[in-house]
Amino acid sequence: MEVYIRHLEKVLRRYVQRLQWLLSGPVLCSRTWYRWSTDRGIMMTAASGSRRLFGTVLESKVCILLDTSGSMGPYLQQVKTELVLLIWEQLRKRCDSFNLLSFAESLQLWQDTLVETTDAACHEAMQWVTHLQAQGSTSILQALLKAFSFHDLEGLYLLTDGKPDTSCSLVLNEVQRLREKRDVKVHTISLNCSDRAAVEFLRKLASFTGGRYHCPVGEDTLSKMCGLLTKGFINENDPTLPPFEGDDLRRLAQEITKARSFLWQAQSFRSQLQKKNDAESKVTLS
Q1: CA-CA-CA-CA torsion for 107, 108, 113, 114, nearest 10 degrees?
Q2: How far apart are CA 50 and CA 21, in angstroms?
Q3: Could you name the domain of life of the organism this protein comes from (predicted)?
Q4: Which superfamily is assigned to 58-210 in CATH?
């Protein structure tokens, strides 16, 4: 039982490390978090704002589709900043080739094809990002059709704050048709999780293509998570995780909840065994 409990505690520590990595950003890199993680032998990871907004890029040949319609105006400056982080933190380190495409009423391509991920290319992409402006409608279908035409493409990362300007079912049907010819995963990112119709559309689009749906965690939740991670998950009276919208965080939270339940059961069994052994010892002594 002691060995089992030690292994469960080790699993939970690894889960917490993974959770911190997925949520990585300035809020979770405080001295308090560092002390807690060091005490428990957790390896620190560098802060990466791009994962918080875009999630984790998995494929080596990708295209980023960025909504620059008028409704993106309030978010665009933050998105541009974190897109630059994405270019250097994930695309440069993990990808062989990439491209960027913004869409509103029309499309704006950085390059006509996927290009090799070099320092020079990343610098050029960064300059292109700085000139993006928000205006017009949301032509998601047009953007997806163009992106699917890129040779050797493996993954698309679609960031938007709402539904397309065409029928959602039309977009889903067209993507299914395109997928019959090319195995490209579409990962979706929502900047407006309160629009439930848009969220449902983006969830379906990701699910249909074997991709993941991602919704950035807000500042309030991040602040709460900092305190929660500082306290840990070992004891039964520790606070529970908040609900997550995105697939990766939601699945990880489910695994953490399951592991905590197993740990509490094991601790309870250990306590009962200890009481039983103590009682038997007293009987033997008497």
Answers
A1: -110
A2: 11
A3: Eukaryota
A4: von Willebrand factor, type A domain (3.40.50.410)
Which of these, 49, 85, 43, lies nearest to 64 by C-alpha position?
85
pTM of the model: 0.79
CB 99 within 8 A of CB 110: yes
Phi, psi torsion values for 128, nearest 5 degrees: -65, -40
Helix axes 219-231, 31-39, angle to 10 degrees: 30
Q: 242, 243, 234, 284: which is closest to 264 by C-alpha?
A: 234
Q: Any idea where the domains of the chain sit in the sequence?
A: 58-210
Residue with tokens 């699945």: 251
End-to-end alpha-carbon separation of the chain, Å?
28
- For residue 187, the surrounding DSSP H or E stretch is strand 185-190
pLDDT value of position 107: 96
Helices 168-179/196-209 angle, 10° precision: 10
pLDDT in tens, 242-283: 788 888 888 898 998 899 899 989 999 999 988 888 887 777
